[in-house]
Amino acid sequence: DPRISGMYASELIVVADGYIVVDNDGTFSVVEDQVAKIGDVTYKLLQEAFDAAQDGDEIVVLKDIVLTEGITVAADDNMTLDLNGKTISRNTETATSTAAITNNGNLTIKDSSDPSTGKITAFAANPDTQAVPYYASNTITNYGVLTVLGGTIENSTGDEARAAFPIDNNS
User: Fold this and answer.
1) Is 71:81 a contact under the CB 8 Å cutoff?
2) How far is CA 105 from the centre of its chain?
3) 170 CB neighbour count, 10 Å cutoff
4) Going by C-beta distance under 8 Å and a sequence separation of 6 or more, which residues neighbour residue 22?
């Protein structure tokens, strides 16, 4: 069990990677670091939450997330992503597609925070600069049904990129 509890925290608390210290009104616990939840079930990785989601589920982002790989929404998925005022970002150094999210299913994105500060962003350090680009540096590549009800979708790849879009409907 990764939980360690105590009444006092007068000393410096050092925890292993993947764990955080949570203050529960003066009682401190060490718990696994979680990035998203569906109902009461939490997940360490955003893709794990997407993979576990059932038809109509809502994934709530719990903290800012820097993706090392893009998230894929399967063709038969139907879900909502609540940014909850948090930022999902994907920054790539390599010359490949940079999509933070590739949607093949039915994805709704919203932001329940007030004011709405949630964001999905992508940046490609080495975008395709050819006149006819081989790949795109998108934030969201959409092959399915995408509904954006709130939050910000941005792409901060520089102007030298020939194909860098916040949302690419693969047209």
Assistant:
1) no
2) 17
3) 12
4) 28, 29, 30, 31
Q: What is the DSSP letter of 47?
A: H
In this structure, what token pair is assigned to residue 139?
Answer: 């934030």
Report how far residue 22's alpha carbon sits from residue 32's, in angstroms, rounded to the nearest whole number.
10
Question: What are the E-state strand segments in the chain?
Answer: 4-6, 19-24, 27-32, 36-38, 41-43, 58-61, 65-67, 71-73, 78-82, 87-92, 101-103, 106-110, 119-124, 140-142, 145-148, 152-155, 167-168
Q: Report the alpha-carbon distance of residue 77 to residue 142 in Å, rounded.
A: 13
- Buried b vs exposed e over 121-133: b needs ≥16 C-beta within 10 Å? bbbbeebbeeeee
- 50-55 contacts: CB < 8 A, separation 24 or more? 50/77, 50/79, 53/77, 53/79, 55/79
- How far is it, in rounded angstroms, from Cα 148 to Cα 56? 16
pLDDT digit string, tens, across residues 42-93? 999 999 999 999 999 999 999 999 998 899 999 999 999 999 999 999 887 7
